[in-house]
Specification:
The protein has about 240 residues and is α+β, with helices and mostly antiparallel strands. Helix content is about 30%, strand content about 35%. It contains 8 helices and 10 strands. It has helices at about 5-10, 30-35, 50-70, 115-130, 150-155, 165-180, 180-185, 235; strands at about 15, 25, 70-80, 85-95, 100-110, 135-140, 145-150, 190-200, 205-215, 225-230. The protein has a 5-stranded antiparallel sheet, with helices on both faces. A hairpin with a 5-residue loop joins strand 6 and strand 7 (about 145-150).
Length: about 240
């Protein structure tokens, strides 16, 4: 069976499978992306070239999706001839016959290497930030939290909840607004400020924090979000 001519030349990988998820047809983009340019092997799955462990995970995910009638998506690795790793994202949707019974599946495949690498790097950075005793938080101009590390939870008492519902977060952000000079935020030329901040921590002690505030702005100078690093220097000050 050949895939529909209208999608055969699409730049994204498109494939069709039978009721069991075995390939019946695919366009050239899919053959190049997932099959190394080779032809379809009878009874092969879309992830046939994945590593053995990932093939097993894909098969298990495929079976769960069929049993629960949920959309199927999966990411797996392939190795290019030069040894570089490439991540492929596949997803499928059922094809229905005249009596609404599933007759097979149509799917797409995309190279998502860049997004996977960014996600891995992001997770590594979050792990690094969480290992720091310094408080690190990111919030938008409305005071909504975008990120908070373990150090902030301990030192400041902020949580991952919205600033509108978390008292400790409100107090800390308000302290920043009250004590950081207004011209720092108002002047588009100012993007970084360092100074000291007085803040009463969850244990009731009035602490002095060494604060670094970084302002990320839009092209027109409007504030997009604030990044804050705070370190407890109370003992040193005393």
């Amino acid at each position: 069976m050949e895939i529909d001519r209208s999608i055969a030349s699409l730049p994204i990988g498109v494939f069709e499978t039978d009721i069991n998820g075995r390939l019946t047809s695919a366009n050239d983009a899919f053959r190049v992306l997932a099959l190394g340019g080779g032809s379809i092997t009878q009874g092969a799955a879309p992830w046939v070239n994945a590593q053995p462990a990932e093939r097993s995970l894909a098969e298990a995910a495929w079976q769960r999706a069929r049993e629960t009638a949920t959309p199927f998506t999966f990411e797996f690795r392939l190795w290019k001839p030069d040894g570089e790793v490439m991540w492929i994202h596949v997803s499928t949707q059922p094809q229905l016959g005249t009596n609404s019974a599933i007759t097979g599946y149509v799917g797409t495949a995309h190279d998502v290497t860049d997004s996977v690498n960014r996600r891995v790097l992001s997770n590594q950075l979050i792990g690094l930030l969480d290992s720091s005793v310094d408080a690190v938080i990111v919030f938008d101009p409305r005071g909504e939290l975008l990120f908070v590390n373990d150090g902030a939870r301990t030192l400041i008492g902020v949580s991952e909840h919205s600033a509108t519902t978390d008292a400790a977060t409100q107090l800390f952000i308000q302290a920043i607004r009250d004590q950081v000079p207004r011209e720092v935020v108002a002047n588009p030329a100012n993007n970084t400020w360092e100074g000291e901040l007085g803040f009463r921590s969850p244990d009731g002690i009035m602490r002095t924090l060494a604060l670094t505030l970084h302002i990320v702005r839009e092209a027109d100078g409007a504030v997009q979000h604030f990044s804050v690093i705070a370190r407890d220097i109370t003992e040193a000050k005393q």
